[in-house]
Design brief:
mainly alpha, 3 helices, 64% helix, flat, Addiction module protein, CHP02574_addiction_mod
């Protein structure tokens, strides 16, 4: 049975995308990193270890972005 995704209500399509993304996120260990990505992550971890800056809360950052739109 084939289903045309475009025939589904948008809320159902969003739920499918969220489910797909969650399945990818739960299996991140199988995604290889390039040398450049690994170097960048190491650089960021080292910077965090040095300054301990945890950044801003996500809600605050999102609100800041929304205020600029």
């Amino acid at each position: 049975m084939n289903i045309d995704i475009k025939e589904l209500p948008i809320t159902e399509r969003v739920r499918l995308v969220e489910d797909l993304w969650d399945s990818i996120a739960s299996d991140q260990g199988s995604l290889p990193l390039t040398h450049e990505q690994r170097d960048e992550l190491d650089k960021r971890l080292s910077s965090y270890a040095t300054d301990g800056d945890t950044g801003r809360p996500a809600a605050e950052t999102i609100e800041d972005i929304r205020s600029r739109l």
